[in-house]
């Protein structure tokens, strides 16, 4: 879905396939942090596509943040969950310019980098959040 989105193609069928797989994974292991990470990832792809096509994306961005935070609650040491929470905060803050959301996103990305300093994507998200927080 992410690849299709980057190419500018409609990722809807890929998102639907991902959701079906994610629902099955949650049915088999409801306490799987990784399943919530993937749910958040799909939410962000869906939100980006909705925004690109002029549809409402705010609820999908919020859903991505909620799913990432569920993953964090299940596994506080999962750097990918922290990164996705930061990405969701960035997506929300880009649309709304919420200082509280920016602060939360920065906290998530800093924790992700403490857990895994090699996360290159985290540096990009961190820079974007800091840029949004600048006056």
The proportion of residues forming helix, as a percent range, comes to over 70%
Distance between the termini: 35 Å
- Low-pLDDT residue intervals, each spanning 5 or more residues: none
Which radius of gyration do the C-alpha atoms yield? Answer: 14 Å
Tell me the series of helices and strands, N- to C-terminal.
HHHHHHH
Number of extended strands: 0
How can the largest sheet be summarized?
Answer: none
Q: Give the amount of beta strand, in percent.
A: under 5%
What general outline do the C-alpha atoms trace?
Answer: globular
* Number of separate helices: 7
Mean pLDDT figure: 94
Structural class: mainly alpha
Describe this structure in words.
The protein is mainly α and 135 residues long. Helices cover 81% and strands 0% of the residues. It has 7 helices and no strands. Helix 4 runs antiparallel to helix 5. It is globular. The protein starts with a helix and ends with a helix. The model has no long low-confidence stretch (mean pLDDT 94).
Compose a concise summary of this entry.
The protein is mostly helical. Helix content is 81%, strand content 0%.
Task: Supply database-style keywords.
7 helices; mainly alpha; single chain; 135 residues; globular
């Amino acid at each position: 879905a992410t690849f299709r989105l980057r190419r500018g193609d409609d990722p809807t069928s890929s998102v639907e396939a991902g959701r079906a797989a994610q629902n099955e994974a949650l049915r088999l292991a409801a306490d799987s942090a990784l399943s919530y990470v993937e749910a958040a990832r799909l939410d962000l792809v869906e939100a980006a596509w909705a925004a690109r096509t002029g549809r409402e994306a705010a609820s999908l961005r919020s859903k991505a943040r909620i799913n990432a935070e569920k993953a964090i609650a299940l596994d506080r040491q999962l750097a990918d969950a922290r990164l996705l929470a930061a990405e969701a905060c960035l997506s929300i803050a880009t649309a709304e310019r919420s200082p509280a959301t920016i602060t939360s996103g920065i906290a998530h990305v800093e924790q992700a980098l403490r857990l895994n300093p090699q996360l290159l994507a985290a540096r990009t998200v961190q820079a974007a959040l800091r840029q949004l927080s600048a006056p």
